[in-house]
Amino acid sequence: MKKESRILLLGLDAAGKTTILYKLKLGETTVTIPTIGFNVETIEYKNIIFTMWDVGGQKVIRNLWYHYYHGTQG
């Protein structure tokens, strides 16, 4: 049986959140653009299914981060 976990990637703009997300998803470094809003990807590792939320880090978006906290395990 697979476990599910919701992971939230938060940090300042240009910190590398999206780069980390797609390195984990694709196994390679990709060229990214600033995230406006969010990206969501599902990544399976061993017996865990991670739903990873990558939320933009611009100052105007930071005030909205708390909306993403509910149901997050990490």
The share of residues in extended strands comes to 25-35%
Largest sheet: 3 strands, mixed
Number of beta-strand segments: 3
Order of helices and strands: EHEEH
What CATH first level would be assigned? Alpha Beta
Cα distance spanning the termini: 21 Å
Strand order of the biggest β-sheet: 1-3-2
Mean pLDDT: 96
Helix fraction, binned, reads: 10-25%
CATH topology group: Rossmann fold
The CATH homologous superfamily is named: P-loop containing nucleotide triphosphate hydrolases
In CATH, the architecture is 3-Layer(aba) Sandwich
Low-pLDDT residue spans = none
- What is the alpha-carbon Rg in Å? 13 Å
Structural shape: flat
Helices, by number, come to 2
Number of domains: 1
Structural class: alpha+beta
GO molecular function, one term: GTP binding
Binding site for GTP: 11-18, 57
Binding site for Mg(2+): 18, 35
Keywords: ER-Golgi transport, Golgi apparatus, GTP-binding, Lipoprotein, Magnesium, Metal-binding, Myristate, Nucleotide-binding, Protein transport, Transport
Give the secondary structure arrangement, pairings included.
Elements: E1 3-9, H1 17-26, E2 38-45, E3 48-55, H2 59-62
Parallel strand pairs: 1-3
Antiparallel strand pairs: 2-3
Describe this structure in words.
19% of the residues lie in helices and 31% in strands. The chain is α+β, with helices and mostly antiparallel strands. It has a single domain, classed as Rossmann fold (3-Layer(aba) Sandwich), CATH 3.40.50.300. The chain has a three-stranded mixed beta sheet. Strand 2 (38-45) and strand 3 (48-55) form a beta hairpin. The protein is flat. The two termini are 21 Å apart.
